[in-house]
Amino acid sequence: MTSAKGWPEGLRLLRFESLDSTNEEARRLAAAGDSGPVWITAPEQTKGRGRRGNVWISDTGNLFATLLIRAPHATAAQLGFAASLAAADAVASYAGKVAGILLEAIGRETLAVGIGINLLHHPEATETPAISVNSATGHSVNLEDALHKLATQFAAWYALWESQGFSGLKPHWLKRASGLGGPIRARLATGEINGVFEDLDHDGALLLRTDADLIRITAAEVFLPSADPVHQGAR
Predict the structure, then answer these.
(1) Which of 40, 42, 65, 154 has its CA 20 to 30 A from that of 28?
(2) What domains are there in the chain, each with its CATH number?
(3) What pTM was estimated for this model as a whole?
């Protein structure tokens, strides 16, 4: 267990040479009675996964990290917005959308916030186009530097969420949201819905305006007309 200079106070850091999945290691820690807060990272994943059982391609050199933390499950999903803001901050000086996030509830009040960022490599022939920081900028990114930025920014957004709830995160997230006010496609487990991305509800649910109604969506993959994913869970 190590940390770096300037690492957020009160956060532990566990480094592994290789893991099946950083989220799976979070599950094992939680089963052993550890509820964090602790970041888990490894330069290699052998069984990285995404939402709905999708595989997360885990090429060595990219960032794979999970934060195990206590969070009430009634509002834990809102930390996905904190995670996306932190990931955006971490890569803001490098490139555009190159990350995926997967939240997994463990037990009654423990949450695994898994974040993958394509630093050096990105998968080919995916349903939606993928990029890496390296492919977008031509520059390699130091893995330790990226992890430090991610942890530091998440700590700041988490503190805002703790003090103000989702209302504190909402305006910052919407300011960076692609497609706000425009047409989007939402893929749910039961099918797909087309409409206009109108807003976020008070608890973070997506408000999708169709010809017939205003629909609240709490979990989905959302696509812009260009087919770039607005939200795609990963880990």
Answers:
(1) 154
(2) 12-174 (3.30.930.10), 179-231 (2.30.30.100)
(3) 0.84
